[in-house]
Design a protein that fits this description.
Layout: H1 3-8, H2 29-37, H3 40-45, H4 47-61, E1 66-67, E2 83-85, E3 89-91, H5 98-102, H6 114-126, E4 131-136, H7 138-147, H8 155-163, H9 165-189, E5 193-198, H10 206-212, H11 214-224, E6 231-235, H12 242-245, E7 252-255, H13 261-264, E8 272-277, H14 286-299, E9 305-309, H15 319-330, H16 334-342
Parallel strand pairs: 1-4, 4-5, 5-6, 6-7, 7-8, 8-9
Antiparallel strand pairs: 2-3
The structure holds coproporphyrinogen III.
């Protein structure tokens, strides 16, 4: 076992394991050097490149888990969806009608993204730490597919859910089926945990989440149950949804920075908490980082805790600051900290 897997399974470990959301890519010079010579899809689809990029933050930072280098959009092109990255996902033909949804294909499990299975096998041969596989939650994938690109408020998508719920459910159903196949393939290839990214769920009210997100997320997470790997879930800016999220069939909930872990803990009984440093703190001086990290660690003492950022690491982060973050977390003894608190 490993510290990361122990904490994911609910163990109150003596030190909090740490990995960093979006740790591979974006801010690392060794990633940017590969990106000079390759397109984003090439980096995803050439197993040797995906493996190398996955391992870069392990070597440089010494984090306790690896996360596969891919994107949440990876399983969608075989459905018949054209996607480019500029740098965020851009959909060739945004899906707005039932006809367009009905035309989407559902590829067989071994046809969704065979290059991902190859990358996972290579990573497992080389990685000293457990590998987290991942996928996008259906509502978050649908957000891009309907809107067509990133947006400030995703107005067209929010309109679509209300205007054409039948098409919306048909789309979510297909994305759920493809996601189940894609994630099963990852686990069968060697992924030791799965994180479901529901980055845009927080846009919606709890009733909309209950209708358009929860049943699909539950189906995916339940389909992974027989594999006995920890299941992680993140919705960003979603405190108002925790009454729904608390009963999702998963072991770990990743929490953004907007509320302290001590306040969130009773809202998510039985779950390991992951989080929740504000990624912008890493832009500040090292002393500021130390103080903020120790505060988050102290807030997490009430139960099992995996240290992470509240959302992805920012592009402009100095890798030295990321290393300082990891070292600060590793130096923090949770047992001693608790004893000090009791004194
Ligand atoms: O550690 C890792 O970064 C692993 C790989 C990973 C990528 N995307 C690679 C990537 C992961 C885990 C993701 C998840 C992802 N992708 C999410 C969910 C997590 C979150 O941040 O909320 C979302 C919403 C996407 C969609 C997406 N892909 C966006 C918005 C962008 C553009 C901006 C950015 O950097 O996030 C991408 C492109 C993308 N995916 C890049 C990387 C490294 C940037 C490509 C580049 O310009 O170098």
């Amino acid at each position: 076992m490993s510290l990361f897997l122990d904490a994911a399974w609910g163990q109150d470990t003596n030190r909090a394991p740490i990995w960093i959301m979006r740790q591979a890519g974006r801010y690392l010079p060794e990633y940017l050097a590969i990106k000079e010579k390759s397109s984003f899809w090439e980096m995803c689809r050439i197993p040797e490149l995906a493996c190398e990029i996955t391992l870069q933050p392990i070597r440089r930072l010494g984090v306790d888990a690896a996360i596969l280098f891919q994107d949440i959009m990876t399983p969608l092109p075989p459905m018949g969806i054209g996607i480019e990255f500029k740098p965020g996902p851009m959909i060739d033909a945004p899906l707005r009608t039932l006809k367009a949804v009905n035309d989407l294909r559902i590829p067989a499990q071994d046809e969704v993204a065979p290059f991902v299975a190859e990358a996972i096998k290579l990573i497992r041969q080389e990685s000293p730490v457990p590998l987290i596989g991942f996928g996008g939650a259906p509502l978050t994938l649908a957000t891009y597919l309907v809107q067509g690109s990133g947006s400030k408020d995703y107005a067209e998508f929010r309109q679509f859910l209300r205007q054409d719920p039948q098409a919306a459910h048909a789309l979510l159903d297909k994305l759920t089926e493809v996601s189940i196949r894609y994630l099963k393939m990852q686990v069968e290839a060697g992924a030791q945990a799965i994180q479901l990214f529901d980055s845009w769920a927080g846009l919606h009210d709890a009733r909309t989440y209950a209708k358009f997100a929860k049943p699909y997320n539950s189906r995916i997470l339940e389909a992974l149950e027989p594999y006995r790997i920890p299941r992680l879930y993140i919705a960003v800016d979603a405190l108002h949804l925790y009454d729904e999220i608390k009963t999702l069939p998963c072991e770990v909930i990743s929490v953004d920075w907007r509320a302290p872990l001590s306040q969130v803990r009773p809202m998510l009984p039985g779950k390991t908490l992951q989080g929740n440093l504000d990624p912008a703190v890493l832009l500040a001086d090292k002393e500021v980082i130390t103080n903020e990290v120790e505060r988050v660690l102290s807030e997490g003492l009430g139960g099992a805790h995996i240290f992470n950022l509240g959302h992805g690491i920012m592009r402009q982060t100095d890798p030295e600051h990321a290393l300082h973050l990891v070292n600060t977390v590793k130096a923090f003894d949770r047992k001693k900290a608790r004893e000090l608190l009791l004194d």
